[in-house]
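It is worth pausing here to work through a concrete case rather than discussing structure prediction in the abstract. The textbook approach is simple: state the sequence, then state the predicted structure, then interpret. We follow exactly that order.
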Amino acid sequence: MSLITSPTRLSIFIFGIVAFLSGIVGVFSNSPSTLLSFINFNETIANDNHLAHTFFIASSMASLNMGAYYILAAWFNVKIFFIWTVPFRVLTFLVFTKCVISGIAPSFFQLVANGELIGALVTGLSLWYERTYNVVNENVTREHRD
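Step two, the predicted structure:
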């Protein structure tokens, strides 16, 4: 099956690649300046308080969008999306925990990490239960279930 079967699918794929690569650079970079140069912020701007505000807005927007994706996936019962979230939420837990252990993040940030792990476990166990006991939500049309 070819990935590029429609312009819509291609646009979603390209957005995903850009977001994914930005995340990789941000998470695995030894210096914030790597990501800053990636998005064309220079050191003068980096030393300005506006940068923190800019990243706060960007992070909030990403969170808003991700929340919308999760709501829509739940509303339309997109099971494959549910499955995909489990390993990535575990990965988020591991990265956040590493940040706390290494002193990059304050200790209370571990609560956020733990929330990700709990969410992954609840979703994973729910998927297992539904599959094991053949639980199907009959209120969802067949086209949205597959």
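Step three, interpretation. The chain has a mean pLDDT of 80. The helical segments are 7-28, 32-38, 43-46, 49-75, 79-101, 110-132, 142-145.
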